[in-house]
Specification:
34% of the residues lie in helices and 22% in strands. By secondary structure, it is an alpha/beta fold. The chain has two domains: 250 residues, Aminopeptidase (3-Layer(aba) Sandwich); 127 residues, Alpha-Beta Plaits. The strands form four sheets. The chain has a six-stranded mixed β-sheet, with helices on both faces. Strand 4 and strand 5 form a beta hairpin. Helix 3 crosses helix 10. The protein starts with 6 loop residues before the first helix and ends with a helix.
Amino acid sequence: MDNKFTSQEMLEKLISFNSISYNSNLDLIKFVQDYLSEFGIESKIIYDETKTKANLFATIGPVDKSGVILSGHTDVVPVEGQDWSSDPFALREDNGKLYGRGTCDMKGFIAVVLAKMPEIISANIKTPIHLAFSYDEEVGCFGAHKIGDHIKEMEVEPFLCVVGEPTEMKPITGHKSAGDYTCSVHGLECHSSMAPSGVNAVEAGADIVSYIRSVAKRMASEGPFNNNFEPPFTTVHTGVIKGGTALNIVPNHCEIEFEIRAIPEQDPAELIQEIKDYAFRQIEPAMKAVNPKTGITFVENASVPAFDIDDNHKMVDFIKSLSGSNSTSKVSFATEAGIFQEAGVPTIVCGPGSIEQAHKPDEFIKISEILKCEAFIDRLVFALNAN
């Protein structure tokens, strides 16, 4: 393997791996592992339960000192149903922009970090840099949870984590939590002419959706509020509802998927418990009065904790100095930052590209953003050697 890559060449290589979350990312992880090994860097591979996906964790520099984690996710969102002008998995350059799935979110950051590896190695850094590349961030940060467990077991705790999500290289010091839930209503089917003798799962589900909507309205009108976020309150949203097979059959099943994105001041567990209490106390008893085998169940599909670091924290000042930014902000989208913060590592989100381009057809990152990220890494390496 030729270990000399520009950031753009490395991004082109990373984009070529179709690492949509429902696919394996092992080919990409193996490429990164082989690339790092050419520099004498060993990688720890942390697999999921199926062994079809994996995280990569590697350390450059001394292992007996506290260091900096550079974190990025290797998975990308699907392209199906989107109108792309070119192959999403082949990098295309046009008018100062690099197009392809994941260019912005967030293989651009990973590409810069990897392309800078020869310079990082030659700098013989005194403070270690840890690479943490995860799987399945887009569907619940599942890989990052395992990396968080690994961090807790490290002999020397890192003093900083930088999550390279697209922020136009501006430091982000907080984001909302994200919880993904499924409510399943198990009813009793019968002929629609005899509807009262059945249990209509869709109608019961509709009552639950209506209650979820009332919770959302209350959050918007009564708070709590945090004006650093947009919108400045916790959002509750029903995204999918499925049920029924034919008009003349009382439906025996309804499935509802909803999410809670909570500001740091709001405990999402309290809201999910409130919704459960309504379902179990107000809806389920009437169902079971018709047939005791009916009922309602809830499943938590994913939970990403909120993230919040004091703007006066010394690490915030450090990242501001590296990025050249004089201000910070907070965002509503979730990242793995809260997981690393819960593992005890001060964390800041800062990476190239704009979130406005993420998840869209013809996703792109400006070459100018790549250059800004390269300068950021250069300053980081210099600062770590100065300590």
